[in-house]
Queue: 2 jobs
Job 1
Amino acid sequence: MSVVKINVLTVPAEMREELERRFANRAGMVESSDGFEWFELLRPAEGTDRYLVYTRWRSEDDFQNWQKGMAFQRGHAQAAADAGRAGGQGQGHGHGQGPAATDSEVWSFEVVQSAGPKS
Ligand code: HEM
């Protein structure tokens, strides 16, 4: 059964553009991780300041292995540096300006049912 892991980022309005720019320049290593199935960055259309970093994996173990592995570390080196520069305030997706997000939390789901377009 596939699992979905969503990193929920609270992004102040003035940091939205910067967050999206940083993802546009992301490492792109997750795509070659074992058991990786899908990634999407979801921008809130209305009513919330929370972006969703949606990932889907073949299994919980595949996600855990990615999160413990080099690809996660490489993909997050910049964020760690920015969080360090900003004195550890908040967590975020950042390059040089400090974290773009003021908060993050992970939501976990199991895919019980799924469907795609009829071919
Ligand atoms: C400690 C919390 C986290 C921080 C500070 C953080 C920060 C970042 C940063 C900075 C990037 C790359 C964009 C850039 O270089 O600016 C990134 C990419 C990414 N993050 Fe996070 N992240 C965190 C946790 C997570 C978690 C838990 C997930 C999964 C649910 C996740 C999913 C991703 C994915 C899929 C990418 C793209 C990686 C790639 O392109 O190889 N992040 N994150």
Job 2
Amino acid sequence: MDWFAAGGPLIAVRGIHFAATAVVAGTLVFGTVVAKPASLSEQPVARMLRTQSLRVASIALAVALLSGAAWLSLQAASMSGLPLGEAMTSQVLSTVLNQTQFGVVTEMRSVLAIFLAACLAFDRLPMAVWLALAAALGLTASIAWTGHAASTPGELGNLHLAADALHLVAAASWVGGLLPLTLLLASVRRDAAASASLARDATRRFSTLGIVCVATLVVTGVVNAWILVGSFHALLVTEYGQVLAIKLGVFALMLAFAAVNRFALTPQLAAASGNQREALQKLARNSFVEIGLGFAIFALVGMLGTLHPALHLL
Ligand code: HEM
């Protein structure tokens, strides 16, 4: 099968964009609801975590901007039916940017991304952290207006857009937050000064955030699936349904790793357990595996958005 003809580049670029946007938002959410409260009593570590998350968010934002530009170019080529080189002309791009919903949303998201970059650059300014968080969550939720949710008409369309926007924010907060968590655990292992109690507190806070995100993902995912798939039969017999089913399988695997982290490993970080170092290592490894599974889901969703929804095929 010809990967290019099958839309491979568009699927890859969408997956990279979803993952990079999720890491930006997830890192800032993590900084606000996990790292900051957990490291309040450990100023040197708090400063290190802040620098670390700023670097991660900045690199991820650069990747989100580049993949966003590539997504626009590939979308212009597929909308115009022209080869990529010809579709990159100013005339075609300005038609896509000004006369399609995807184009208008992409313009608005680019402004949001530039504003976010300014907030990260001037993060010492008061309010900059909160403005950055709001911009990152807006950049993530607004992806809903570029996908299938944007083409569902009427009242059901509003429900679909709201569910999809929440779905995206929950996905970013959980999967995107796993990267700063893994870095924090690695820093605690490396830095004898940083106590295991910081890791225990941070892991507990993150797993509470994770539970809220998973519940939101399941509820909004069922809404998405109900509108776009409609039946178990369609889930099993259509290409769209089968890709979604694979996604749900990967999701179940992620939940298994998260459960081991929460119920088996986090309690071992307690001082009395005596094998904190080993538990820290396993927690970091499991979180790393979860990141890999989460990115696999972003790749699958990169593909889902290019397929005809199952409901329309039966
Ligand atoms: C870690 C877990 C998950 C992640 C990271 C994730 C991520 C995403 C992302 C990024 C989108 C794209 C939205 C768009 O293009 O507008 C999406 C769409 C979707 N998700 Fe999830 N999701 C997760 C779990 C779930 C679950 C548990 C379900 C079902 C119960 C689900 C069902 C769907 C459906 C049906 C769509 C719509 C796809 C489309 O626009 O064609 N997801 N998901």
